[in-house]
Specification:
The protein is of the alpha+beta class. 33% of the residues lie in helices and 15% in strands. It is built from eleven helices and eleven strands. Strands 1, 2, 3, 8, 9, 10 and 11 form a seven-stranded antiparallel sheet that branches. The radius of gyration is 30 Å and the shape is globular.
Amino acid sequence: MTIIRAAAVVLSAVLTVPATVSASPARAATPYLPCPTVKPPVAPPAAPSPPPVAPADLAVGGESLATAGLSVPAGAPAAPAVTATSWLVADLDSGAVLGGCGPHEHRTPASVQKMLLAAALMPHLDPNQMVEVTRADLQDLDPASSVMGLVPGGRYSIESLWLGLLLKSGNDAANVLARVGGGAAGRPGGVQAMNDEAHRLGARQTHAATPSGLDGPGQYTSAYDLALIARATYARADFRRYVATRVAEVPAAPGRAGFSLTHDNTLLDHYPGTLGGKTGFTDLARQTYVGVAERDGRRLAVTLLGAETAPLGSLGEAAALLNWGFALSPGASVGRLVTPDEKKYDRPVAQVKAEQHGPARTGRPASWPAVLGVGAAGVLAVLLLAVPRRRRAARAAAKP
């Protein structure tokens, strides 16, 4: 019985260790910070609530970005108050995210969605290829929407279509490019290519329903995703040349006259160092903008969604956010832009700012006394089973 008594003493000692000794403290959630906002003089029209963001997607790029509110570096100057409902400022070269407001929240893109069309199809289309425009390319366009001026039966180079897309936000150019880039699947194939490219880039809140950014069912993006898309497009020399062009000529062709394209509504001539940008507007999306500016060797991208025309408009708010970003030290950041070859963000991440997205986790890891208690119980069970075996063996050895 000596072995049994010893094991019982060990088991009793382990199980009587107070549980509070090993209980690890709960991890404190990062506090929610409201975004600095300014009230527009005219309230925007009511819009349906966007879908919630999946918890596993909230902290892509860093846990500090997992918030519907403000995320800025510690000690940073106050971010400007804007009407945009979400925004982000990032270093285009290092990939550092300098700050943002609701960076992963679903928002309606409007014409900044055209940058995803460029990211998806520009690598695959020959700029010198001539394309004939069909009536189907134009028949579903609102006459009041932005167009570059294509005519049915007219033939245009792919390069002219890219210029019309980026300088005049041509919805007609978007339809033609998507049709040609979609191959046998036509325009739907081009839209699918956009969604495939968004997935490749890690833009998880982005879904395209139209190639132009005109409102479509289930069409959303986020300020963070737009920064990923901007980084992909600005990595291309042809895109940088197109988006920085102020005036382009579309030459005459049989059956149509030539015409000029003039870059509209960007900061090219109004904000020093601007390398180009893309505006957008629909009644549902409000004003949207994606742009890049360079100063002292740093290229910063600004993305904003849901802005109003007053008091500053999307361009004024973009300039204010760029000024704020350039005022930060080069090493300041709250996260990073993920890269297409990076797969670490595919695993679930802990939600650290759950104030807007559901309950926080309450489960706790097992304490070490509990683990040791289970182990000691197992040892005792083995000893108890071993004692009868030893007694039977001893009796058998004593028999003649």
